[in-house]
Structures are given as C-alpha cells and as structure tokens.
Specification:
145 residues; Lysozyme
Amino acid sequence: MNNNTIRLKMIEIIRKWIEFLRGLRPIRDLAEAMAVFEGFYSSDNTLAQRNHNPLNLRYSKFQVDNRGGFAVFRNDEQGWEAGIWDLSAKCSGNTVTGLSSKSTLKELIYVWAPPSDNNHTDNYVGYVARRLKVKPSFKLKNFII
C-alpha cells in the first residue's frame, strides 16, 4: 500500500468513528434533561432543589438523609454524582430494576417515574427524547461511553 491509500483508509476509519460517536449521547446529557423535567432548575424552590437531588432519587447509597421518600444529599455536587452513578448503573444493567444496556429510554423513564406514582410518565419520556433529539426507543447502551 502506498501512503495515499493508507491515508484514505485512515480517513474512512475516522469518518466512521465520528459517525458512531455522533450517535451516542453522554449520560450527563440524559441526567441534565431529566433534571429539567424533575424541576431542579425551576425558580419554585422544588423538592429536587431542597434535597440537593437533581434527579429526585428515592434512595441512594450516597444519601445523608431521606425526606418525603426522596434521598437528601449534602450539596448539589453530591446529588449530581449520585444521579449519574445511578443512571450509569441502570444503563449498564447493574441494578435490580431489570433494565439493561438493551433497554430503551422509554423503559428507563417508566422505571424511574412510573405512572403508578402519579407521574406524567409519557410527558417525561417525550420531553427527554425531544431534548436529546432521540426516539423513545433509543437504547440505553448508547448513553455509555
């Protein structure tokens, strides 16, 4: 192979890699979208804000307290870390929820905020999917980099 052929092969490999990466959505983007829906960025002094719990986790091994059935963290940073950790575990199938990397965004949110808890789960799914520019059928494995 001459240098030009090698260079063209490398360009093709890089192009395919970039195309692959564009299809991924970092877990942080997912967490941000969920935090918006959970009211963390609201000006209304929400439960998520008071508990330093951007994703309104019900339980976390990192919590310092539990108030109203939701985990309480020392500060927002610890709340974010716990939320990202929990989402990562769910996206990779390392929880008892039954979710795995093959599960979808919709399945995740139905576990996260089930209608049986008086959540507007379909609105939640729609909001997060629109914000991330993906379909509700987007696989959780695509959030893990």
